[in-house]
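Chain A, query sequence.
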Amino acid sequence: MSISTLIRTGLELRRLRSRERWSRAHLDSYQSRALDQLRRFAYSNSRFYRIFHRGLTDRPFGELPILTKPVLMDNFDELVTDPSVRLKQVESFLAGMAAADKFLGRYVVTSTSGTTGRRGIFLSNAREWASYLAPFARSPVWAGLAPNPARPRRTAHVVSTVPWSVSARAAASLGTSFSSALRLDPTEPLGRIVEQLNDWQPQVLTCYASVAGILASEQLAGRLHISPELIMTVAEVLTPEQRTRIEQAWSSSPYNVYGSTESPIAAECERHSGLHIFEDVIIPEVVDRAGNPVPPGEYGDRLIITVLFRRTQPLIRYEISDMVRLAQAPCPCGRTFGLIDEVQGRVEEVLVFDDVNGGRVAIDPIFFEPLLGPIRAVAWQVVQEPDELVVRFSGLSDDVSCEQVGEMLKNSLMARGASVPVVRVLKVAQIPRTDGGKAPLVKSNITQATRGIFRSAVGNSPDRL
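Chain A, predicted structure.
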């Protein structure tokens, strides 16, 4: 990270901290002013928004259309507010970029992997990038580890090192002369990761939730010997079983952070009672398939965010395909921000089966956790193939019968009305990871074209980081 980025991020973090004890009325007033400024800027500088919101520029926020990733990418050149930015040139830049490179010398470029649909590309100028990084820095502060340039902490990031991934860009930006950082790729052999962490002895460990669970098992097995003061889990759903294992390994609960390539979204505070939504950075909306608000205590079918700090690429009522549930009670910490008490996963992770009556039945990702989480294993994954359901376990205990697990899962699915094909349960050395280093708990390998006929059952949303 350059000194200028460090200063910008630090100043932005200070501003963010000052907002955490605002009253609800103060926060609502701030959001309203910031939204008005964003809309005026977009209408003045983005040809796309002048057309997309035609006839609605003076209408209430909730009447504006929802922006999807395919629409954004189809209209990329007209949506961005810098006329020198063109999608073809950005794509060429991505193909050969290094982690520290900037497009046109001034834009940090990040991209989604496109594993569940269309790839999304996002640009941030220096101010926007600092505004992106600063909310995530709240977690160390909430954990009691405020930044101290005089005493830099050794940090280890076990996240994607693919240059265009937001994890890699953020980790590269956070590695400075004021913060000693080790960056490891989750796709490296586990033994090599353990060896380097033992040598480095990180004080702060940031990694994908699936990696944190595996490293906790290595610590409990006596092969990993580290004592981090803070564990931050990112980019994947953190399961109750993973959290428990991490707590057993290090006598400390992880700070779960929730973000996307488009924006930071939420993070846990010291009470670990849910994820505080960064409502001074985004305006969140949890909605059903029709776009209607969903009350606290119920899962929405998608999350809509308006990113208040983006100007190069404004995101107004932008759809993220995550199914989240707002908490019904506030966090006892007293912070005003709304609280997410559960992130279930993406709409694209919903598995769709024939039902016994000839229709379709959708199985949410959260269905599998209480069934497979308690099984004695290091990690698990469910993959829907066209003709079978494949369940993989790494580190599965020798006394666990794969046949019995398969039968249990099949019976549970049938009880939900699903006509289940073959269920195959496999012991594997490691759960397969994507090119970006993630290990999704639930995924479908049914083609997007085939899944298209199921949209009425599971909603219609783009993918996320």
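The chain has two domains: 3-347, 350-458. The CA atoms of residues 141 and 147 lie 7 Å apart.
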